Amino acid sequence: MRKRSPDGTIRISYPARIVGGNRDYTLLGARWTHDGDFDGFAMRAGDPVLEYFYRNMWYGVIRLMDRRGHLVGWYCDLCTPPEIEMIGGQMTLSYTDLALDVFVDAAGKPRVRDAAEFEDRVLPRLDPRARQKSHRALAHLFRAIRTSTGPFAPGRGVTLEDLRSQLYEPAFP
Q1: Is residue 172 part of a domain?
Q2: How far apart are CA 144 and CA 86, in angstroms?
Q3: How far apart are CA 162 and CA 149, in angstroms?
Q4: Domain span at 40
């Protein structure tokens, strides 16, 4: 898994496995890579995450869980649709982060982050078609949050036990 900045540099890279999906999205399972507190989301290195990457949507959704598998919330990236690349003999999913993030707590309340960076630095560099797609993606994302559909649907996703059986050990205690 590789996350690029708008300028093309690799921001984050980490191992992940495909654990599900369909014709619309790919579902990856991974471990959170660092300790941090993000607007009240306390995540620790090693916490399990499920990542939804949509083939035709300009956003990705990461379902954040604690080590017991309880939902912490969702971290949503406004981003380009993912590309599948072969890098060093490994299939790698890569995407470009467009700076705007939406954190959604376990109760479904969204909080937007980095809107000024998106508006001031990223949006002016996008061509008109990409600008339109990013705005459409935001509307779609907020509709899914508001209606508890897609990755925000109750009971949606893979359980911690499913992840333990599908991901590399000792990824999850």
Answers
A1: no
A2: 32
A3: 21
A4: 2-152
